[in-house]
Amino acid sequence: MGNSLQIPLIGVGTKEAYLAIRSDPQLENRFEPFILPIWTNNFAYKRLLSSFVSLMPLGQESKLTESPLAKIILERSEGIVGEMAKLIKAAAIHVLYSGGLKITEKTLNIVDFHSPNKRKQMFEDELVDNV
């Protein structure tokens, strides 16, 4: 596709996906690795949170850029943008169904969401229990 249609291909994945690409010399030669850093609590992170806020159809503006909300989101998502999106979406849905007006610290702490490491641990615990 990249040659005939002149559409660049981008592969995104985990460390394991990168190692899979490396297992084939032809594939490895076609992709240049670039590590995406984990988000930290800085100006760029606050801008990202502001963009989420601007898309939420809630009754009041959620102050996600302010502490402790920004800190909770960063910790629960482990700094991964896709996880932030899942957490914020789950929180917004919870607010809508509960009749609330905005995402609060309480909402972020009670919403049904597990971090990637927590999900991995839960899955591994389930494997052990079923063996």
Q: Give average pLDDT, whole number.
A: 89
The helix-strand sequence is HHHHHHH
- Total beta strand runs: 0
Low-confidence stretches: none
As a percent range, the share of helical residues equals: 55-70%
Q: Distance between the terminal alpha carbons, to the nearest Å?
A: 45 Å
Nearest-angstrom radius of gyration?
19 Å
Task: Explain this structure.
The chain has 131 residues and is mainly α. The protein folds into two domains: 1-36, no CATH class; 43-129. Helix content is 56%, strand content 0%. It contains seven helices and no strands. The protein is globular, with a radius of gyration of 19 Å.
Give a topology summary.
Layout lengths: L14 H8 L2 H6 L12 H13 L13 H9 L3 H18 L6 H6 L5 H14 L2
Helix pairs in contact: 4-5
How is this structure best summarized?
The protein has helices at 15-22, 25-30, 43-55, 69-77, 81-98, 105-110, 116-129. With 131 residues, the chain is an all-alpha fold.
What keywords describe this structure?
7 helices, globular, 131 residues, mainly alpha
